[in-house]
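User: What would this chain look like folded?
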Amino acid sequence: MNRPVLIAAVLAASAAFAQRDRSEMEGRVYAAIGGGGSLLMKPGDSTLGYDLEVRAGYSFIPKLQVYVAGALDGGSFSGATFRTEQIVAFGQYHLWVESALMAYLRAGVGVALSPDVVPGSLAWGLGAASGLGVEIQVAPNVFLAPEFFYRYSNPSTGGTGLSVHTIGMQLGLVYY
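Assistant: Here's the prediction, encoded as structure tokens.
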């Protein structure tokens, strides 16, 4: 396919999506799944890793969604596998809403879990997260969502704790 035909097809699809009313997002179920790369940092060490996340919640108005997310971040510190999981309640606010493109900011707090702080014991503690991204409509009610994120986990068990900071970028698929 040559470039002018591709550009014309994208513009035609964008125009079709632009006809949709954003009020269709009110009172709708919100669901998403995503993953990407990350940088995990703990005192004295850092590593490249991976990120997976699922979300389920509700869209009250086009600009506001509330949901629960489960996230898994992992990597390898000094040859040993390390994972943190988070279960977090989020609020997401769309800073800018157009028919086929929206920019958002999200923040949440919940619990962080890790089986790798002390072997044989599940550590838990505060979990917090935030993100800044865009949602690009690719089909009716379906959006592609690249996002920069930050997560803080502070799991501890048996008097041993660990602060883990995670930054990264993920690509998600969102349904309203």
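Residues 8-22 have pLDDT under 50 and may be disordered. If you want, I can go into more detail on any region.
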